[in-house]
Amino acid sequence: MDELRDLNTMPVPSELRHNVFVTTIDRFVSYIYNWGRKRSVWPMMFGLACCAIEMICAAASRFDIARFGSELMRPSPRQADLMIVSGTVTKKMVPQIVRLYNQMPEPKYVISMGACATGGGPFKEGYNVVSGIDKFIPVDVYVPGCPPRPEALLHGLLKLYAKIERQSVREVPWYQKGESEAIPVPILGPDLIDPRRLPEIRARLAELRAQQGGSPEASAGSEKGA
Ligand code: SF4
């Protein structure tokens, strides 16, 4: 390793640059680590709607996702590092999806498969459908289509590999000190509430009450009391 560290500062004559491999320690470690990791991404076994049928086809013999090292679909989030959101995301399902995402160990990735998961698809603005799962959890790769064919999902998987290849062990959040924060689970009531937006919702509520005659302070106070 000391030799490699020396390489970082060692000047290389321009005529030799194409013949020697110069790297930094963290790039070298990242390369080895990512090379091994990208070929064993285990998806979680769950589907939401018609797109899931195409995802199942991708895992069957004709398209054979095993060629890319992802044949082990795990029924538990604790054993998976890839969530494929395949299908229509209803408001009722969002709390479960966020909870499952929080239960996956890091490093973890998300593929949004199909028009529904990415933006609501044909059901966009529907009373019970969210306009994209990326409003709640971070998405790494979007696969377009309604439904995307299995080849499209495999292409998305290759795009994910390319993203993993570019990650640096020095910069990714899961190798920093301390624990990563879980995403607050949305609250399902008459509508879906994202706890991260509560201050914004309370402010808007106070504003509306003030417009209707009450003072903003009184409205905010009664909201806190509630
Ligand atoms: S994108 Fe199309 S195929 Fe996929 S879940 Fe939505 S409606 Fe079904």
UniProtKB/TrEMBL annotation:
Binds 1 [4Fe-4S] cluster. One of its GO terms (biological process) is aerobic respiration. InterPro entries: NADH_UbQ_OxRdtase-like_20kDa, NADH_UQ_OxRdtase_20Kd_su. GO terms for molecular function: 4 iron, 4 sulfur cluster binding; iron ion binding; NADH dehydrogenase (quinone) (non-electrogenic) activity; NADH dehydrogenase (ubiquinone) activity; quinone binding. The keyword Hydrolase does not apply. It holds the Pfam family Oxidored_q6. It is found in: Cell membrane. It is an enzyme of class 7 (translocase). Residues 50-160 form the NADH:ubiquinone oxidoreductase-like 20kDa subunit domain. Its cofactor is [4Fe-4S] cluster. Its main location: membrane. The chain crosses the membrane at residues 41-63. It catalyses: a quinone + NADH + 5 H(+)(in) = a quinol + NAD(+) + 4 H(+)(out). Keywords: 4Fe-4S, Cell membrane, Iron, Iron-sulfur, Membrane, Metal-binding, NAD, Quinone, Translocase, Transmembrane, Transmembrane helix, Transport, Ubiquinone. It is a peripheral membrane protein. [4Fe-4S] cluster binds at residues 50-51, 116, 146. NDH-1 shuttles electrons from NADH, via FMN and iron-sulfur (Fe-S) centers, to quinones in the respiratory chain. The immediate electron acceptor for the enzyme in this species is believed to be ubiquinone. Couples the redox reaction to proton translocation (for every two electrons transferred, four hydrogen ions are translocated across the cytoplasmic membrane), and thus conserves the redox energy in a proton gradient. NDH-1 is composed of 14 different subunits. Subunits NuoB, C, D, E, F, and G constitute the peripheral sector of the complex. HAMAP family: NDH1_NuoB. Belongs to the complex I 20 kDa subunit family. PANTHER family: NADH DEHYDROGENASE (PTHR11995), NADH-QUINONE OXIDOREDUCTASE SUBUNIT B 2 (PTHR11995:SF33). This is NADH-quinone oxidoreductase subunit B. It comes from Thermoflexus hugenholtzii JAD2.
